[in-house]
Amino acid sequence: MLKELRIDGAQREERGGGPPKWVWGAVAGAVVLALAGGAAWWFLAGHKPVPVQTATVRANGQGASADAVLQATGYVTARRMATVSAQITGTLTQVLIDEGFKVHKGQVLARLDDTGLKAALAAAEAQVRTAQANTGQLRAQLAQAEADARRQAELAASGMTTRQSQEQTATAVKAYTAQLEAAQRQVEAAQAQMRQAQVNFDYATVRAPFDGVVTARAAQVGEIISPLSAGGGFTRTGVGTIVDMDSLEVNVDVNEAYIAQVKPDMPCEAVLDAYPDWKIPARVVAVIPSADRGKATVKVRVALDQKDERVVPDMGVRVSFLAARPKAEAKPAPGVLLPPDALAQRDGAQVVFVVQDGRAEQRTVQLGADVGKFKLATSGLKAGETVVVSPPAELKQGSTIATKE
Questions:
Q1: Alpha-carbon distance 361 to 387, whole Å?
Q2: In this predicted model, what pLDDT tens digit does every residue of 36-76 receive, in sequence order?
Q3: Cα–Cα distance for residue pair 72/189, rounded to 1 Å
Q4: Are 313 and 274 in contact (CB under 8 A)?
Q5: Rounded CA separation 167/291 (Å)
Q6: Where would I find the beta strands (DSSP E) of 273-343?
C-alpha cells in the first residue's frame, strides 16, 4: 500500500514557482539600456554647442580717426631709388657694401679691374709730357730766330747785310711761330686724351650717387659688370640698390567715385600694417591725373610728416583722409577696447570668454577708465582676439561654441 502512494520523480513539480530565468535576463538588459541612454543624454546635453555672438577687440588708439572722411590702402614707396652700376664693362675686384649699409654721396661702393685703364692713363700722360717738351724746344728756337731777326734789322740799317738775309731771318721767325702754335695745339690734344683716360680710369670706381641705405647687393667679386644688359646671365648690370630713406612717401589707390573728396595738402593719418598702434601724421602731395580703368581707381601721393627706421619701402599702409588737421592728443592708455556686453560675472569676478579653437576660454580681466562706449581692459586680453558678446548663463570654461550668423 505504501509503495502505491509514492510519487515518481518524473511526476514531481519544481519548487520555487517563480518566473523563468529568461525574464530576469530581459529585465537586466532593459536596465543597462536605460543607464546607457541616461549617460548619453547627460553627455550630449553637457556638450551641446552654445550659440553665441562674437566680436574682435582692438588696441586702444587703433582704428580710423573720428574726422576721417575717406580711407584707402597702399604701399610705402621711395622717390629716389637707384640700382648703381659702372659706366664701363669690367671685372669686379672689390665690393664694399652689403644689405643694410648706410652710404654717403661719393662713397666708394665697388672697384673694377683697372689694369688696362691705368696703362692707358700712363700712356696719355707720357704723350702730354712729350708734347710739352716739343713746345719748349720750339719756343727756344723761336727766341733764337727773333734775336737773329733783330740783329739783321740793325745790320740792314747800317747797310752791312743784304736784304735777302734780313728776309730769311724774318721768315724763320714766322715758321717757328707757326710750329710753336701747332705744338701747343698738340699739347692741348694730348691733355684732352689724358683727361679722357682719367675719366675712364675713374669709371672703374663705383660711387654712391646720393645718401641712402643699401637694400640689395647684386654682384660679387669676380663677376663681370656692365651698364648694358647682356644675355646668358653671366654679366651683372648693377652692384646694388640704394634707397634714399628721406624720400619715402605713400602711394594709395582711391576709388574714382570718391576722388573728388581728396585735395592737395589735405591732412591725413597713415597707419602701417606692421605697427597698427602708430598713427603717422601725413598730407596729400598730389592727385595723379590718371585713372586705372581695370581697378577704377586714381593714385594719390601722400607725404609722411614723421619718418624713422621703422618705415621701409613696400610696406602696406592704410591712410585716413581727414576733414581737418588733428589736434595734438595725449598718448592713449595701453590696453584693448572691449564691448561692455562682453563682460560677465563669474564667482564675483569680471570675466570675458575668449574663443579658442571653437571653445570658450574664461579669462579674468582688469578694467581701466572707459573709452567712449567701450571698456578698457588693461590686462587679460590681447588686440585681435575674439570674445563672446552677451555670454549666456550656461556658457562656462571649455564650452563648445557655435557662432551665430
A1: 9
A2: 555 544 444 445 777 888 888 777 655 555 456 788 999 99
A3: 62
A4: no
A5: 84
A6: 275-292, 297-304, 316-322, 336-338
